[in-house]
Write a structure and sequence with these properties.
32% of the residues lie in helices and 30% in strands. The chain has helices spanning 3-8, 33-40, 47-55, 104-118, 133-141, 171-182; strands at 20-23, 62-68, 75-84, 87-95, 123-129, 145-154, 158-166. A 7-stranded mixed beta sheet has the order 1-2-3-4-5-7-6. It is globular. Bound molecules: coenzyme A (COA). Coenzyme A (COA) binds next to strand 4, helix 4 and helix 5.
């Protein structure tokens, strides 16, 4: 059992609050993922983008996870990661509006971090909309710091802030994750 699994409670990914983190399956798309996407982004991912990403999980280059309030309940949040060499890139983090501010994204990010560390990544990165201040706060909690701006990255009109978090193999980072997990 990994550090994060221990921290989250049980080996199946369910925490003391009953939140269940599990690998994304194609049949989850119609059970919450596409709806959450439509609320989360001006240009949500299509089913075919998700299907292609899920197909690539078996190559080891991707990880996609879902969060449920109860096993077999609707998916209330999802998140994804690409692996390149010794770095990981967060591709998507979204939580249904009805489930926000209750630690769902934190639980998903903890699980992504756990896997990035397990796969020997030394850093992780992401892009976030300038207007997504809540998401930026979430990422700052995980130790991400702004490292640059991609002009007009979203829909050719909105800038992306590029954020990086380094040294994720260090003991200090494990301590940060434990603190975040303790608040779950
Ligand atoms: C950003 C998002 C994923 C956060 O999901 P969430 O499950 O509500 O996040 P959590 O409950 O785990 O929040 C953890 C912490 O992040 C910060 N945070 C999250 N949302 C916030 C908001 N709207 N405003 C300010 N801080 C916020 C807070 O520090 C929060 O801790 P607190 O609730 O104890 O204050 C969700 O709002 C969402 O899906 N937004 C639309 C999609 C998006 O912007 N995704 C990121 C793309 S890069």
């Amino acid at each position: 059992m990994s550090v994060i699994e221990r921290m989250l409670g049980r080996a199946d990914g369910s925490g003391d609050d009953g939140l269940v983190i599990a690998p994304m399956r194609k049949r989850d798309l119609k059970h919450g993922i596409l709806e959450t996407e439509s609320h989360a982004y001006p240009k949500p991912w299509s089913p075919s983008v998700f299907q292609s990403e899920i197909d690539q999980v078996k190559t080891g280059s991707r990880l996609y996870l879902t969060a449920r309030r109860v096993a077999k309940g609707p998916v209330v949040g999802h998140a994804g990661l690409w692996f390149t060499h010794d770095e990981a890139h967060v591709t998507n983090v979204a939580v249904h509006p009805d489930a926000r501010r209750s630690g769902v994204a934190t639980a998903l990010m903890l699980a992504l971090a756990d896997e990035a560390i397990r796969r020997d990544c030394v850093a992780w990165t992401l892009e976030v909309r300038v207007s997504s201040e809540g998401a930026q706060e979430l990422y700052r909690n995980f130790g991400f710091v702004p490292a640059g701006v991609r002009k007009n990255y979203y829909e050719n009109v909105e800038d992306a802030i590029v954020m990086w978090c380094h040294d994720i193999q260090d003991a200090e980072y494990a301590e940060r994750l434990e603190r975040l997990g303790a608040t779950r």
